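Board work, copied verbatim: FAD/NAD(P)-binding domain-containing protein
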Amino acid sequence: MNMSEIDVVIIGGGPGGYVSAIKAAHLGLNVVLVEKDKLGGVCLNRGCIPTKALVSTAELLNHLQRGGEFGIQVKDYSIDFPAIMKRKDLITQRLSSGVEQLMKANQVRIVRGEGQIIEPGKVEVTDTAGQKEIIKTKNIIMATGSSVMSLPIPGIDIEGVITSDEALSLSELPSRMLIIGGGVVGIEFAGIFRALGVRVTVVEMLPRILLPIDEEIARRLTQLLKRKGIEILTDCKVKEIKKNNQN
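↓ predict structure ↓
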C-alpha cells in the first residue's frame, strides 16, 4: 500500500466526473480520477449512446421495409445481429477512448479501481487485483452516477430475466421479449427489438405509458407502437415471474 497527495480526487468517470476533472485541471490543480469501469459513465457505455446506435439500425430497417412507398423495391436483406452489436460496441469504445485521451491531454491521472472515503481527506482505491492505494487530497468530488434498479418481484433473478444493461450485451436475438415498464427506457428498447423482428410486449402498472410525457403525445405514440406490432398492457402489475416448460 502506498500513499500519495493530490489537490482533487474525483470518484466516478462519467459526465460529471470527467468534466469536473478537466475544469479542475484548467484551474491548475493536480487531479486524480478514480473509475472501476470504462470512462464515460452510464450514458456513453450502457445508455444514451449504445441505444442510439441501435435506434439508427432500427430506422434503417424501417426505411428498407417502406422502400416500396418511395419506388425502391428491397426484397432480399437479412439481419446480422452480432454485426449490429459489434457496430454498437465500436461506437462506444471509440467515444470512451476519446474521453481517456482528454484526460491524458489535461494531465489528469486515471486510477482504475473502486474508491472509498476512509476519513476526511483520504480516499482508498482498490484495483481489480486487490492492491490498495491511499490518496491524500484537499478536495473530493463524488460523481458515482447511477445503476440499474432491481424490481422487488419474486423470480426477478431467474435465468432469462435481464436488465437494460444486459439487453445491450445480448449475443443472440430473442424471438420474444416482455418488457416490464413503459417509461422512456422500456419503450425505446421495445421499438428497437420490434424493428429487429422480435415479438414485444410491454407491461406498465400505470394507466398509460410514458407518464411524464404530454398525454396526447403519449396516446399517439401508443397508437404508433401498436401499429408496429408491439403489444402494450397498461394497468397491469407483474406479481411474479416463473419459468414455463418452454423456458
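The radius of gyration is 22 Å.
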